[in-house]
Amino acid sequence: MPSTLAPRCVRGGTPDDARSAGLSGSVTSFGVVQQVNPAADFLGGLKCSPATGATRLYVMALNDGTGGIYAVSDEYLTALGERYGLASRSCAAGPGAHEPWTSQSGEGLVACMTLSGRQPWVYFSFGEGRYLAFATRNDSNYTALYEWWSQLKAFLP
Predict the structure, then answer these.
(1) What predicted TM-score, i.e. pTM, was given to this entire model?
(2) ∠25-151-2 over CA atoms, to 5°?
(3) Pairing of strands 87-88, 97-102
(4) Is the omega angle on the peptide bond into residue 50 within 30 degrees of 0, that is, cis?
(5) Which of 1, 91, 115, 127 is deepest in the core (most CB within 10 A)?
């Protein structure tokens, strides 16, 4: 996590936060439909203040309901992009996009959007697709959120 944010964060967040971010539904992995259930898959989150970068960060491990974690986060982000009509382009140009990300530490997919003119969201996968995370701010400053994400990805496995 970016050093400017870590000292101001505490554990927090609920499965309802995951649902409010649009993280519900299903994905197809290896020909099998996997349900994405925020109540079962939600690992936890952070609430951060003041509003520098992200103010909330949540992480989910997508599983089959029996605790088995599957590498389906990338497929879910692809489905999210299709559902919301996100362009295949760099999120650096603004919300409404999705793209692969890479750093010295890891790689995955990132999708960025603003739902119904509200606060911006950045969704990303990491850990070889086993984890799905999403971050948001309490205002409409997408640029600050994306700059924070650009720092964070250097620390992801």
Answers:
(1) 0.74
(2) 95
(3) parallel
(4) yes
(5) 91
C-alpha triplet 104, 22, 70: angle, nearest 5°: 50
Contacts of 111 (CB under 8 A, 6+ apart): 77, 80, 81, 86, 91, 97, 98, 122, 123, 124
- The share of the chain scoring above pLDDT 90, in percent, equals 21
**Helix (H) or strand (E) run with residue 100 in it:** strand 97-102
Q: CA–CA distance from 34 to each of 53, 68, 76 (Å)?
A: 32, 11, 10
CA distance 150 to 157: 14
Task: Please give the Cα distance from 43 to 8 (Å, whole number).
Answer: 20
Q: How far apart are CA 27 and CA 94, in angstroms?
A: 26
Name the pLDDT band for 17 (thresholds 50, 70, 90).
low
Residues with Cβ within 8 Å of 133's Cβ and at least 6 positions away in sequence, in order, are: 57, 58, 59, 60, 123, 124, 125, 126
Distance CA(129)–CA(15), nearest Å, equals: 20
